[in-house]
Amino acid sequence: MASRTIENYLKQLYLEQEAVPGEVAMGRLATIMSVVPGTATAMVKALADARLVHYSPRAGVRLTEAGKQLALHVLRRHRLVELLLVKVLGLDWSEVHEEAEELEHVISDKLLDRIDALLGYPEVDPHGDPIPTAGGGVQAVSAETLVSCPLGIRVRIARVLDQEPRFLQFVEASGLVPGARVEVAERDAQADAVRVVLARGGEQTLSTAAAGKFQVRAEGAESMEAPAGASLAEEAPAHHF
Amino acid sequence: MASRTIENYLKQLYLEQEAVPGEVAMGRLATIMSVVPGTATAMVKALADARLVHYSPRAGVRLTEAGKQLALHVLRRHRLVELLLVKVLGLDWSEVHEEAEELEHVISDKLLDRIDALLGYPEVDPHGDPIPTAGGGVQAVSAETLVSCPLGIRVRIARVLDQEPRFLQFVEASGLVPGARVEVAERDAQADAVRVVLARGGEQTLSTAAAGKFQVRAEGAESMEAPAGASLAEEAPAHHF
DNA sequence: GAGCGGATTTTGATGACTCAAAATAAGAAT
DNA sequence: ATTCTTATTTTGAGTCATCAAAATCCGCTC
């Protein structure tokens, strides 16, 4: 079995490759993992020996298919756990990321199946991040964000790309949570600002950087079906979704 | 923070001291922890440095108050997790022990409180083991077992002292689960056997060793109040209690 | 094309946990 | 009392993941 360290390296490599396709530089990996560069090099060599990554010295590192599958497995556990914590245990979605960081390494397959079933085989976690399937598949992700989508068109927040509790608390307060219907009223390049109007009332102006953290989907698009585990959500203290 | 290794040593020391009051011998500890004796000695020295145990070379080891509190904390997490897995996730009580062995080390205090609340502040886990309080208290435990209790008197199974899945599956099948009402019909010292009659019908003959693994309480005694989290149990797939 | 600078790799060490096997102590047996 | 037995402790070594700092490489500037 992969150690939890290895699981973390693979997970972060996957997320980085998802964000920036191509090879991941050592310095970048070291930063992500909060280790010194030498440590990253050493670990990557070990991962390469285990055939979990392709490693070209001084060029960078890239997941192999095996490494990617393992990473997706970890991500599946992470995201299902997050959803469980929010919907069943009633934790705040701004704090479940930290908890899941630990739990993702100690959930057995059997338990994971139970969680999946209890939640009704959900497709996305509380942040809108897609939950990989047991088979290792992932939903394609819409690349549109509040920065790139057309002005004046009703869209739905699909995913929030920042897991920082501070940021998520702001998201919560402003109502820009996954599932919320909004439209971009205006963008001001000079002011570096994006003004967003919420369908259910209210508006919020964001910096371009902040707006770019919200992925959106055309209103009425697929895959925003009944939130998984809705029946349970009624009684359990499920604050947000 | 105590490493998971340390948490495990402390937990096992606590359980051993509960079973056999007094100092724990090194060889015994080594066996319990599945390490060679030298490893146990080394770890115990480290624990002594951290003031978690009292250690007298060649005499044995004993938890300090601090060590005991830490052990109880781990045990609290372990047992609440077990109950959560059975009542909310619908896992079989014969298998939750293994799962909880891992989970007990990664549950935050906040999450633990949520679990406790969701389950309705239960006093015992699915095996009947008492759940230590957040303050570090534990229920006194009845010392009566199917071997020692009076013949022909109705008692209730309070606790099953063996966590082996195989054994627990037998317990399940025979109906001698915590909460079951039974009476000991006869004991045969020669045959080394104990015959138990279940109130709800059926009977079962056990070896003395097996019978000794069932702690019992006089029928109608305190502390067998409404199983914690009963409301939830109705809808969730809570098989056993 | 010689040199510079930043990223990367190497090297040497450390801490936590473990094993194997040799050394030791303490109690039991003769 | 001397020896034997057996549990315990010590010693030496290995693995995993890490850091600090020295060595190396590559592309870029002048």
Give me the secondary-structure topology.
Two copies of one chain form a homodimer.
Chain A: H1 4-19, H2 26-33, H3 37-49, E1 53-56, E2 60-63, H4 65-87, H5 96-103, H6 109-118, E3 154-160, H7 165-174, E4 181-188, E5 193-198, E6 203-207, H8 208-211, E7 214-218, H9 230-235
Antiparallel strand pairs in A: 1-2, 3-4, 3-7, 4-5, 5-6
Helix pairs in contact in A: 1-4, 2-3, 4-5
Chain A binds a DNA duplex (30 and 30 nucleotides) through residues 3, 5, 25-27, 35-43, 46, 57-58.
Could you give a short description of this structure?
Chain A has 241 residues and is an alpha+beta fold. The first copy, chain A, has nine helices and seven strands; from the N terminus they run αααββαααβαβββαβα.
**Proportion in helices of chain A:** 40-55%
Number of helices of chain A: 9
Largest sheet of chain A: 5 strands, antiparallel
Terminal CA distance of chain A reads: 34 Å
Query: Mean pLDDT of chain A, rounded to whole units?
Result: 86
Instruction: Please state the oligomeric state of the protein chains shown.
Output: homodimer
- Weakly predicted, low-confidence segments of chain A: 222-241
Q: Largest chain interface and its two residue counts?
A: A-B, 19 and 20 residues
Task: Return Rg of chain A in Å.
Answer: 19 Å
- Derived structural class of chain A: alpha+beta
* SSE run of chain A: HHHEEHHHEHEEEHEH
Which descriptor suits the 3D outline of chain A?
Answer: globular
Strand content of chain A: 15-25%
- Count of beta strands of chain A: 7
